[in-house]
Design goal:
The structure holds 2 protein chains of 2 kinds. Helices cover about 80% and strands about 0% of the residues of chain A. Chain A is mainly alpha-helical. Chain B is of the alpha/beta class. Chain B is globular and about 60 Å long. The N and C termini of chain B lie far apart (about 45 Å). Chain B has 9 helices and 12 strands. The chains are: A mainly alpha, B alpha/beta. Chains A and B meet through α9 and α10 of A and α2 and β6 of B.
């Protein structure tokens, strides 16, 4: 059963992605999508020019970037949440622990009031995400380099600082246009996703996720405690830095693409642990796939459930929290 | 025969509190060594230095003649295994997964466990008679079973030296005795054991050599019969304990030694 888990989940993701492509204000039957793919990739089928451009516009320009964004954001948040839970030996940890999300929000808001250019906003988001985590890690190093508790405290301090700084930016923002833009951005939304951004961030995100997946065995050992992991031959300091840098990169990029998408990084690892068990070698890839499926489904709800779009970040919480409460009784069996 | 592990005048302090003072010791291949001493006497610190987890502020440690710090982490892990005190973990890994972790030092960044690793892990579990536990959650088995799992992991690690911090701590009497018998069995195969204990009786049962620690220095080092005496136990713990020789166990020719506190007589 566990051997089949990953292939089955990959198939599920493929299916959900296909269905998501067909869903929208303009419904497309899956056969049309297959025809279009067959024509585009293999040169099969004859498609009329009108249909070609219509399908290309809907599928490639509008839906595909958004679906890709949902997949990558869901996978990135779930994987970094899972990795952090093992790294900090605490199942209640989420990707924002070291302040990356607070730093990224501050960076985004600062970019929005300082520059018109969206690329500047995105760069500022990424830079301040790393600054916030850097502050957390530096605080930990100054006081006691190797203690996990100090790292958590550093993250709390850094997160609080950048949350306060975000408030200053909001306070200083022009309340007629800048402030609503910031607030709306922080709700988390995939409707603004564009193909160019996705081209730029997809590769680093995918790389970050894939390299993190290779750390399952080491994270297993590190969640037994630092000294044990070292005695098992692991360079704990180095692996910890690799995981923190990669998790920061991919979490920050989720904010770059879609603002604050909450709860995925906390809920998905628990649900995955119920399905495939706590072994991080299997858990990390399962979390990537289930996180992607979850965010795809949630994003479909947010764009289709009502006549107007609801920000995705709100829906992830609204659907995630009751679901989490339902599974909590089962979930805690794998870690209590 | 030259020593397997040599410490030369090692000293260690946590901040300003000195815990080891110029300790010089040799450990030989195949020895079963018990470190005995009151809380805070420096036994556990010595173990951590031997494992390379702590660096002494002065003095040096050599393993097979080479300075300990010249070994890469995974090289050291292939030679020296750590069996920590029984603990409960946040995540419910299966017993088989925990034992497999012992194969970690044989893998690089991108490689993962092979079928051979799985065989070795199974062999280690079979040796400690915990094969039937392999699919159980590590968090749901008993303390004794958890300690056996950690020992199986050390066996899977392929190490020659086992370093154990109070291996029987928190176990009931039956599990304590079973565990000591298992350690004895592994020791007969030529593995080296260095372990701390709070029980002089356990040292008398299992060790061929006992090192007594007090306030960071070695006050006695040698065979259990010569090191564990009324005088040394008083020096260590400030209580009167008689060490008696038992000869009258029917059907057994060998004698045993036990510690009996004076107040119980």
């Amino acid at each position: 059963m566990k051997r089949l888990a990953l292939p089955l989940l990959a198939l599920l993701l493929l299916g959900v992605a296909l269905v998501s492509l067909s869903l929208g204000k303009y419904q497309l039957p899956i056969t049309d999508i297959c025809q279009f793919a067959g024509w585009k990739i293999f040169g099969l089928h004859e498609l009329s020019a009108a249909k070609q451009s219509l399908l290309a516009n809907i599928l490639l320009d509008i839906r595909l970037p958004r679906i890709l964004a949902a997949i990558l954001i869901g996978a990135a948040l779930a994987v970094s949440g899972t990795a952090f839970q093992a790294l900090f030996i605490n199942p209640l940890v989420s990707p924002g622990l070291l302040g990356v999300l607070a730093g990224a929000s501050f960076g985004a808001a600062l970019g929005m009031i300082c520059a018109e250019n969206w690329l500047v906003v995105q760069c500022s988001t990424l830079v301040f995400a790393f600054v916030a985590v850097g502050v957390a890690v530096t605080i930990a190093h100054v006081f006691q380099a190797r203690s996990i508790i100090m790292l958590v405290l550093g993250g709390i301090i850094s997160g609080a600082f950048f949350t306060a700084s975000l408030s200053i930016v909001k306070y200083a923002a022009d309340p007629t246009n800048q402030l609503p833009a910031i607030v709306y951005w922080l709700m988390g939304n995939l409707s603004a996703v564009d193909g160019d951004t996705m081209l730029l961030v997809s590769l680093p995100m995918l790389l970050g996720i894939v390299v993190l997946l290779f750390n399952g065995g080491r994270l297993n050992a590190m969640s037994m405690g630092e000294e044990e992991a070292q005695a098992l031959g692991i360079n704990v300091g180095r692996v910890r830095m690799i995981v923190i840098v990669l998790a920061t990169l991919i979490s920050a990029l989720t904010v770059v693409i879609g603002g604050m998408i909450g709860w995925v990084g906390l809920i998905i690892p628990h649900i995955c642990r119920m399905i495939v068990g706590p072994d991080n070698r299997l858990l990390l890839p399962a979390a990537a796939l289930i996180g992607a499926v979850y965010l795809l489904v949630v994003d479909n709800v947010s764009r289709l459930a009502f006549s107007f779009e609801i920000p995705t970040g709100i829906v992830t919480s609204l659907i995630g929290i009751p679901f989490f409460v339902l599974v909590l009784n089962n979930a805690h069996r794998s870690w209590r | 025969m030259s020593a397997l592990i040599q410490t030369l005048a090692i000293s260690f302090a946590y901040h300003n509190r000195k815990v080891l003072h110029e300790v010089t010791l040799d450990f030989k291949q195949g020895e079963v060594v018990s470190l005995l001493g009151p809380n805070g006497s420096g036994k556990t610190t010595l173990l951590k230095i031997l494992l390379g987890l702590l660096k002494p502020q002065s003095g040096s440690v050599r393993f097979e003649g080479r300075l300990l710090q010249s070994y890469a982490r995974n090289e050291l892990a292939q030679r020296i295994a750590y069996v920590p005190q029984v603990h409960r973990e946040a995540f419910a890994y299966t017993v088989a997964d925990v034992v497999l972790m012992g194969r970690m030092p044989y893998h690089g960044f991108f490689s993962t466990y092979s079928a051979r690793d799985r065989e070795i892990a199974e062999g280690a579990m079979a040796r400690l008679n915990i094969l039937e536990l392999q699919n159980r959650a590590y968090t749901e088995i008993s303390g004794g079973e958890r300690q056996l799992t950690l020992i199986a992991r050390a066996v899977a690690q392929g190490a020659n030296v086992f370093i154990m911090d109070e291996p029987v701590n928190g176990l009931d009497y039956g599990n304590q005795m079973r565990l000591l018998a298992d350690i004895n069995g592994l020791a007969k195969e030529g593995l080296t054991f260095i372990m701390t204990t709070h029980f002089p009786d356990h040292a008398l049962m299992t060790a061929d050599r006992v090192i007594l620690f007090k306030e960071g220095t070695v006050i006695a080092d040698g065979a259990p019969e010569t090191t564990i005496t009324k005088e040394t136990l008083h020096a260590l713990y400030r209580i009167d304990v008689h060490v008696a020789t038992i000869t009258a166990i029917p059907g057994h020719t060998r004698t045993g030694r036990v510690c009996v506190p004076a107040w119980a007589l």
